[in-house]
What we know:
Layout: E1 9-11, H1 29-39, E2 42-44, H2 46-49, E3 61-63, H3 66-73, E4 77-80, E5 86-91, H4 97-114, E6 117-123, E7 130-134, E8 140-144, H5 147-159, E9 164-170, H6 178-184, H7 193-207, E10 211-216, H8 240-248, E11 252-255, H9 256-259, E12 280-284, H10 291-298, E13 303-306, E14 332-335, H11 338-349
Parallel strand pairs: 1-2, 1-12, 2-3, 5-6, 5-9, 9-10, 12-13, 13-14
Antiparallel strand pairs: 4-11, 7-8
Helix pairs in contact: 1-11, 3-10, 4-8, 5-7
Amino acid sequence: MTKTDPLPTLLIIPTGIGCSVGGFAGDAIPTARLLASASECLITHPNVMNGGSLYWPETCIQYVEGYSLNLFAAGEVFLEPVRQQKVGLLLDAGLESDMRIRHLQVADGCIASLGLDIGPVITTERAVRINLEKGLSGSSWGNIEEPDVLLRAAEKLKKAGATAIAVVTRFPDDSDELETKLYRHGNGVDIIAGLEAVISHFLVKHLLIPCAHAPGLAPLPLEYDLDPRTLGEEIGYTFLQSVLVGLSRAPNLISKSAMETKENASLLAKNLLSNRDLGAVVVPQGALGGEAVLSCVERFIPLIVVCNRGVLNVSSTKMRLDYLNGSKNNMILYAENYLEAAGLITALRYGINVNSLRRPIYCLSELNNVEM
């Protein structure tokens, strides 16, 4: 029996838009594990894999920050799988003393218990100051008042030998706000998630190394009957541990321009992943307007659209994507849930005609010579 090659698959669940699956604290990790099992090579981003105190590393899951993922899908970077990254820790000067110590203890614990390579550590010269906002669509976002301060500290970490960076910034406490209450009970949008993506995007754009963010927040008051999807953030003092685990094996980002130089030509012989390797991309219906999705559509990579409700409504109908089905062998596939999406990935991987699995099966139609 011959072994079937992996089908590199991109799983995207956008940050801060309140998806039923993936809009909370690592609640998409089971989905990622399932799709990774079906594809044997899953590329996804921190929003999917970060669960606060909970995480689940898989060797066949590539942890790629969202901006990097956009570059990868567009063919601007290649992914180089690694055995281990040296994760630098960037702490905001706005963290209180006790909160700073808690985060340092997490890093030390990850070295002692998980064998991660963490360090060096740097604190920004002054507080970076974070502001949270909410868009008209209901999605979360925000801004950094001192981005130059954040970038200077990150550059120092890279210069000191860090090959990936975990960032902790002090976020505003809003435990009494309605948005936080709704979120904890499973009915709202994660108000901090959008700005977390802004921070990591900003650093990756300038440094082109793996980066991910963990918010510094005071513990919330104990509350009963919380939604299980939020509990990864309720059971610890920090959210840093899942970030450190993800970054510890995040692939290197190799720019297209670097590959074109003569001295780096040998890298082509390595096991690099490029967008040409992608066999499928899995995205929620309503969240189809992102850069990575559009890049995949342009390359006619099969798009698996999953019913996964969020606050956005950028659907395949509004994007007018359905017309592509007639020209490129049904490149738009629909799934009611991620269980069905895993089945579609398996069919693509093993070369099974998806139409043969559905009923009714229609007879072939003959081409009209006049139309040819």
